[in-house]
């Protein structure tokens, strides 16, 4: 079974190492030995984390995936192009593909899945979401007889590391980010992580699998964590909550559509996701019969991601030997992703208010006007420190947004100090 | 695709309900509709939790599995016989089988797997361990390219409920058991749960999958939780630990054998398994490349178990449609399960001792004599309450056992008040 590897960076070099170190185990598990047919790289002379036979290296990725003797292509280049053309070319040529490319799957998964169908090959992508955590296979296969209602995931290790530091040490966002950069958990340009782009791509993939529909990253409502302050974190803590950046895929109450979004949210400290520390990832799934499930582990890094790639490689190789294919893309349900305004959530709001009688009455009236029901109110401080802290019952995002706009216009409200959605305690 | 169901109890009736309620989804996911061909029961007239067409019911299970038009057999009777004969008969007849029968798999899995191979059918058993939690598929498939070193699992909900109550309320074992029985978490005869038999069967299945070897329940070292006192629980709590009944499968340091055991153990409260409350299950896996993974969810109950059965049913049905088979039993590594004496653990020991100088020196000398190195010692109390609390470094169980025997013979030791293994903080 001949394997072509596209990319030899952090993940690719670990894939080569594991294919070499575990070759006897892999051969026994597959029923045939794996052979590395070639490795496509950008520059031949570069120093690498792993020893590679120079004869295997090539800068002509297109020629490598076109080779007749290649059975399986592993793509760990990332990004949209040339990854897409290479994968499509491999699949169209009847090869099977294993990829870790979340951005591509979330932008144009349909093209890849169609090419797989046309070429009668497999397209596996466990490594694209939550690194080493076996998550896509359980969603695609183990829960195939169940009905997933909701997925709540911590799918970005960088932001979890930052929020965890802010929670445990009281650090500001900027200081926590700097520490994450020093330790290699965050990149020099942290935008993709802290603005939620990375998590949004993963959310799109998860929603597609959970709801058997096609979802692209463009349909994901996305908010990052850059505006979270040490005060927000402390105030959440005081109320028994912790702030996490969540990827949330939730079926609507009538079951006919779903929402998919990435934003910071407060979750109760008793929730299984609350204990997910440092750069770990975890995904919480609520299914009708299975109930609550959680999958926890390392979401990134060379070796963990390579482990997921190798698991897919074994499955794909077994399928080819048996002349079979794994489960195809499943989009039969074809549900609609509804806009953020239709999403139903609870909300935590801190208002700086005038310290005089009747303030609560006027604020409560405004909430009522927008049909947003209040669960708890706490009045705190005096004079210039007077604050109202409100937690609402479930309401549509449109109603909550309108309420916040109304609050900003009330003369007795000096400022809307913070607004944060609350998840995981219904 | 015709399905025969053996057993219509708590799980079987949920399988029927889900097959009915989700029939359109299941057909779309499989690519062909499922049809219930018959349901084998012990008594025809019995009242059931689900409506079943009386024409489908039969007491002749053997005739049902022999029917030519049946493609897939689901076995949820449990126990060794007649389940084994029925499954073997179905597999020998070329049918695929989905079973939740942990006891049978742990006692005589080899016979079932051989019958599956001979008949060229599938044998799937996700529901046999940790109910709804997708665990066996990840171990069998997602981690097929990795090297599992250790599995630590809370795989019995009844005992976790009891230990959690003891931990949170300070209740005695007897009171916590009684509460569990009242709430339906424990059976009238709780032996299979509290003595660890149920967990031991699951440990055997997990070890077989993790180490690609054949393991039976007889090879599992087993200790229950009946002797755990409120004092043990309180003392663990004080030290930042919690007591859990763990199923542990661990490769030896030289990688040439493994240990498989079920016993109560102290784990640090910071360990992800420590937060597993009530009757939930969770399995913690350490793999060489993937690192630490955890799978969490409901380990029992009709609907959760049925969800796992249905997931297998979809996979098996897809395989048959494609003329393929899922992954076979993988026992190529053929590692040896070593006896408990060779298992290496840490240990927490509380000794009631004489309150006089030189006691610690003599106790320490005895540990040294057996090559057991001490990590921490705490001296507590005075006079008749004088106690030494010792936590050891890693040592073989044989050395620890010999040390305990030696301690019991020391005149300065009034009693070995408690001995408990410590896991999860190396």
From TrEMBL, chains A, B:
CDD domains associated with the record: ACT_HSDH-Hom (cd04881)
Cite the Pfam families for this sequence. Answer: ACT, Homoserine_dh, NAD_binding_3
Residues that bind NADP(+), according to the entry? 6-13
User: Gene3D superfamilies under this entry?
Assistant: 3.30.70.260, Dihydrodipicolinate Reductase, domain 2 (3.30.360.10), NAD(P)-binding Rossmann-like Domain (3.40.50.720)
Enzyme Commission number(s): 1.1.1.3
**Cofactor(s) it depends on:** a metal cation
Give the protein's function.
Catalyzes the conversion of L-aspartate-beta-semialdehyde (L-Asa) to L-homoserine (L-Hse), the third step in the biosynthesis of threonine and methionine from aspartate.
Entries under PANTHER family matching the protein: HOMOSERINE DEHYDROGENASE
**What is this protein identified as?**
Homoserine dehydrogenase
Give the species this sequence originates from. Answer: Nonomuraea phyllanthi
């Amino acid at each position: 079974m001949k394997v072509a590897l596209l990319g030899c960076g952090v993940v690719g070099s670990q894939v080569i190492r594991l294919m070499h170190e575990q070759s006897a185990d892999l051969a026994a598990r597959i029923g045939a030995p794996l052979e590395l047919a070639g490795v496509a790289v950008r520059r031949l002379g570069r120093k690498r984390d792993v020893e590679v036979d120079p004869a295997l290296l090539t800068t002509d990725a297109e020629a490598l995936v076109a080779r007749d003797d290649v059975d399986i292509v592993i793509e760990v280049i990332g990004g949209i192009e040339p990854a897409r053309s290479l994968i499509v070319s491999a699949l169209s040529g009847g090869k099977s593909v294993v990829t870790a490319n979340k951005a591509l799957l979330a932008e144009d998964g349909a093209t890849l899945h169609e090419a797989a169908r046309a070429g009668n090959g497999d397209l596996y992508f466990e490594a694209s979401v939550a690194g080493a955590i076996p998550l896509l296979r359980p969603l695609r296969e183990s829960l195939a007889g169940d009905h997933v209602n909701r997925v709540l995931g911590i799918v970005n290790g960088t932001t979890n590391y930052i929020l965890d530091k802010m929670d445990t040490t009281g650090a500001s966002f900027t200081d926590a980010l700097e520490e994450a950069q020093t330790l290699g958990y965050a990149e020099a340009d942290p935008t993709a992580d802290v603005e939620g782009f990375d998590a949004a791509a993963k959310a799109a993939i998860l929603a597609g699998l959970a709801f058997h529909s096609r979802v692209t990253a463009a349909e994901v409502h996305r908010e990052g964590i850059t505006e979270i302050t040490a005060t927000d974190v402390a105030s959440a803590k005081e109320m028994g909550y912790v702030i996490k950046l969540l990827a949330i895929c939730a079926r609507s109450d009538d079951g006919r559509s779903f929402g998919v979004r990435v934003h910071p949210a407060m979750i109760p400290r008793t929730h299984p996701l609350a204990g997910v520390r440092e750069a770990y990832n975890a995904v919480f799934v609520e299914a009708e019969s299975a109930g609550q499930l959680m999958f926890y582990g390392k979401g990134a890094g060379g070796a963990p991601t390579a482990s997921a790639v190798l698991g897919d490689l074994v499955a794909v190789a077994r399928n080819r030997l048996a002349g079979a294919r794994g489960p195809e893309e499943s989009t039969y349900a074809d549900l609609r992703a509804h806009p953020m305004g239709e999403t139903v959530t609870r909300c935590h709001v801190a208002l700086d208010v005038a310290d005089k009688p009747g303030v609560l009455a006027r604020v409560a009236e405004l909430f009522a006007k927008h049909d947003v029901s209040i669960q708890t109110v706490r009045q705190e401080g005096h004079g210039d420190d007077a604050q109202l802290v409100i937690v609402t019952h479930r309401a549509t995002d449109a109603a909550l947004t309108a309420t916040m706009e109304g609050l900003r216009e009330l003369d007795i409200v000096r400022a809307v100090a913070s607004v944060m959605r609350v998840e995981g305690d219904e």
